[in-house]
Amino acid sequence: MGLYLNPGNLEFGRALAENIYVDKSELIHYTNDRVNKEMRFMCVSRPRRFGKSMAANMLTAYYSRGCDSGQLFAGLKIEKDASFETHLNKHDVIRLDVQRFLYKEADLDFFIDKIQEAVLEELKGEYGSYFEQELHELPEALSRIYAHTGTGFIFIIDEWDCAFRLAKGRVEIQRQYLDFLRWMFKGAEYAELVYMTGILPIRKYGDHSAINIFREYSMLNPGRMAPYYGFTQEEVRTLCEENGIDYSETEKWYDGYLLGGIHIYNPLSVVELMDNEEFQSYWTGTETYEALKVYIDLNFDGLKESVIDMISNGRCRIDTSTAQNDMTTFKTRDDVLTLLIHLGYLTYDKQTKEVFIPNQEIAQEFVRAVKTGGWEGLIQALEESEELLRNTWEMNGDAVVAAVSRIHDRTTSILKYNDEKSLKCAVLMAYYSAQAYYMHPVLEMPSGKGFADVVYLPRRDVARPAIVVELKWKGTAEGAVSQIKRREYASWIENYTGDILLVGIDYDGEKEHSCLIEKYHKS
Length: 523
What we know:
- This protein is an alpha/beta fold and 523 residues long.
- The protein has four domains: 10-227, Rossmann fold (3-Layer(aba) Sandwich), CATH 3.40.50; 231-280, no CATH class; 289-369, Orthogonal Bundle (Arc Repressor Mutant, subunit A); 376-519, Trna Endonuclease, Chain: A, domain 1, CATH 3.40.1350.
- It is 38% helix and 16% strand.
- It has 19 helices and 18 strands.
- The chain has helices at residues 10-17, 27-32, 52-63, 84-87, 111-127, 138-149, 162-166, 171-185, 233-243, 247-254, 267-276, 289-296, 303-311, 333-343, 360-369, 376-393, 397-410, 420-430, 477-486, and strands at 41-45, 92-97, 153-158, 191-198, 204-205, 208-209, 215-217, 231-232, 257-259, 262-265, 316-317, 347-349, 354-356, 442-447, 450-456, 466-473, 500-507, 513-519.
- The strands form five sheets. The chain has a five-stranded parallel β-sheet with strand order 2-3-4-1-7, with helices on one face. It has a five-stranded mixed β-sheet with strand order 14-15-16-17-18, sandwiched between helices.
- It is elongated, with a radius of gyration of 27 Å.
- The protein starts with 9 loop residues before the first helix and ends with a strand.
């Protein structure tokens, strides 16, 4: 048993001993199905604290012939799988945590050599007779071992992208690292399985992956790996029942990541909730709002407007195909938003090609990030939002229009347009507090004989009215409400059991706003 070659199962054993352990062992079924096959190169990318290292420790404990893990897997789901005994502790495993070789930026110039030296030293103890002592190239040593013995290796590499996050501006270092990985694995007969995890997908140059042999499982394309990183709704519901925690409140705070049609929770936040029994943001323990601020303050056309829409519980349509999967190459707004998906600040709806803030925990991080520097109008709008929402429920049109007018005026320094788009953005900001009571607002949902501008539907078990908002530019508030009725915008939610409020807001282009609120009479 070594540190890098055939390590033991201590870390996985510690995970099993925790008060909260969610069984993800069925992941092994999918990795077993790829051993010694063309699709044996896998790269899984998820945000911090999504269970990547735990999964890597589990796979190490399962495959490594440096330990006996049968008892650890007793009772876990994978034990019943037909392939379980076939691979249990029967492989040579090389386990690397790249972060161990990159404590500081100065290590970037030597970390590839350090990785090779560390693994070669342990290989010499086991297979030294098959290659010269002075050999310094790891791929060559592995090839010679395989040629003499027919023995292959399973590679489990955690934090594979650490070098890219540390060497953000050093393109040559990035290329050297990718060249090393390509050299290690492309055409490598000795590689029985290569499993890499990181925050970022594999770096692209142009439109192509720099290491195209890997099948990637990312926040954008999770494939069948979606349930094995993070907690599913069913798993969180069970934890809430076992620990006496309100599931509906947990859902509001921590649900929202969409992966392959499955709702996924950040496991760190859920575990902290179960331990502390307090709903709050635990994200600050892994990423800071300063890191988020760096990206949302970038000066790309439409980026700030998109951030405002999403903070206000809206969605933004994006094209993720141009992103280069690094932390420095940005050409468009969409490149920045795609990075925020991989970092866990946004989630992506693959069906609609839209991004949005997944939950209340992350929404708080966005609010923290915009509290300084050029976002003053937004902060004031958020502070007024709760009162505006209550005035809407009370059908106090005068108070609502006064607040919308103030918010619209204050945000002209942030927004680059002064038209109906600006008014919609201001209204979304004005109803920021709605996220505590309502689902994501539906923007321009086809209904009746046209499109309602904004529709708010209450969350489950929330006794609040649905709200249908129609905006007018140089018209009248009365005309907006009349249009809702004439075109039957509320018809698609008539079966909603509570009240429905119709809100018409008009802006004449000269800083004059008007508002009319009526209760909808169901047919």
